[in-house]
Amino acid sequence: MNNTRFSTAIHILTLLADSGENWVNSDWIAGSINTNAAMVRKELSALQDAGFVIGRKGKEGGSRLNKPSSQISLADIYVAVKNTEVLGKKNLNTNPQCPVGKQINKELDQLYSDTDQLVINSLKGLTLENFAKKFR
Amino acid sequence: MNNTRFSTAIHILTLLADSGENWVNSDWIAGSINTNAAMVRKELSALQDAGFVIGRKGKEGGSRLNKPSSQISLADIYVAVKNTEVLGKKNLNTNPQCPVGKQINKELDQLYSDTDQLVINSLKGLTLENFAKKFR
DNA sequence: TCAATTGTAATAAAATTTGTTACAATATAA
DNA sequence: TTATATTGTAACAAATTTTATTACAATTGA
């Protein structure tokens, strides 16, 4: 995760969690993060796909949570945005003639997925509700 | 960690662990990983800085472990090569006028370092010795 | 002295991430 | 029903990170 997607997602969701039923527009969110409204809408799109958010077009449009913040865990958010494993990428095309090159990715698969799972399980205990509460 | 540094480092160290006292050259290592010898030497340089490896120049030169593989944990390796936090980068320059923008990085600092520590602690239980054993 | 090797720098190429611009579709309010 | 504000998305551009390549001085052993 050499990117800001988790930071951005949790920032957006915190703003929505603390905005109740109001429709919050992407320009206002972008102002808080200090980024571009189109970037925010891209991330909102992913958060909609994950079921956390609904959007409404048109004048007075915007976004709001699609479920109580108590029912969104930081694990859910992480899984929605993560695009690499915690320990990084593997070297594909290792040399099959070498005992290590031949077998290492099979061994790493286990280690890498165990490590991901560890992180996910720990984030499961944390809710957006409790995170967002800190800013009120 | 959207890179192959951990994979590469553990691959190199596994080869060295299974090569005992022999001086292993970067060309041979590169052949197993299927990458460039100069890349391997760059990573070896980092592994030397971390104290895991020693190198010798000149004809018959190469690299070998600088301590028993039982005394190198996967946590040590991870720490030596990691360059981002598990949960990624933060948005700096968030808006200080916004209650969330103002405070979020302080809250994320804790979460991010806790998550890193979780991963490191879990890798502490795993040694290079046990990993390398699988390939003999 | 010759040959092989490291260590490192400089550079280039490729991939990923972030930012920008534009606009059709849509929804509200006057 | 018209004007206005907004999303959702695509296309593109810029910036950053990652990986690969080339080169060569310094070193070591034979």
TrEMBL record, chains A, B:
<dbReference type="InterPro" id="IPR000944">
    <property type="entry name" value="Tscrpt_reg_Rrf2"/>
</dbReference>
<protein>
    <submittedName>
        <fullName>Rrf2 family transcriptional regulator</fullName>
    </submittedName>
</protein>
<dbReference type="InterPro" id="IPR036390">
    <property type="entry name" value="WH_DNA-bd_sf"/>
</dbReference>
<dbReference type="Pfam" id="PF02082">
    <property type="entry name" value="Rrf2"/>
</dbReference>
<dbReference type="InterPro" id="IPR036388">
    <property type="entry name" value="WH-like_DNA-bd_sf"/>
</dbReference>
